[in-house]
Amino acid sequence: MKIFFVRHGHPDYTEPKALGYPGFGNDLAPLDALGRSQAEQTARDPRLKQGQLIVASPFTRALQTAAVLSRRLDLELRVEVGLHEWLPDLTYSYTDVETVERARAEFDAMNGVAGPERKQRWETWEQMRTRAERALARYAGYDCLIVVCHGLLMQAFGAEKTISNGGIFEAEWSPACRD
Fold it and tell me: Which of 27, 102, 136, 154 could form a disulfide with 159 if both were Cys (CB 3.0 to 4.6 A apart)?
């Protein structure tokens, strides 16, 4: 199947920070004005007219981006928990941004592959791709999906290192084959 991975628009972390939400609180951040504009611009990309369904991460910034695409492309939107952002802490217990930064630095230094020297309990590339593939397998009957998610998840499917907010990465995927 063809998948158009769309990275969510630029988020506004102001409100979660102002409310004092620790750790995963940033996942509640909506798009800012730039992010809303990016979503509108992405919706105009003619390649997305091939999409049959929009499937999105449950995080606010991805859902808001997907809602714009759904409205503009007149496509149904479904939410898949397995398409969430990379997990910097598999214990789900972090409460500060420093933990995330340490985990990301270690993830990058180890190229996303856990070795015996790993100190942080972050999600590996393989774990990330496996959970996303499980979510996407539900849509095996489709020819073309639009998947609104996060940059690291897109990289787990072969995207370039940097996918800009609102950017699109096109991939071929099937549950039986790995890219």
Answer: 154
Residue 130 has phi, psi (to 5 degrees) of: -60, -45
What pTM, to 2 d.p., does this model score?
0.93
Tell me how far apart the alpha carbons of residues 161 and 134 are, in angstroms, rounded to a whole number.
Answer: 23
Question: What tokens were used for 43?
Answer: 């919706």
Beta pairing, strands 53-56 & 144-149: parallel
- In Å, how far are 4, 131, 134, 140 from 165, measured between CA atoms? 14, 22, 25, 27
Look at residue 100 in the predicted model and tell me its pLDDT.
87
Residue 100 Cα to chain centre, angstroms: 16
Q: State the residue for tokens 């102001």.
A: 14
Angle between the 33-43 and 60-73 helix axes, to the nearest 10 degrees? 40
Residue 6 CA, chain-centre distance (Å), reads: 8
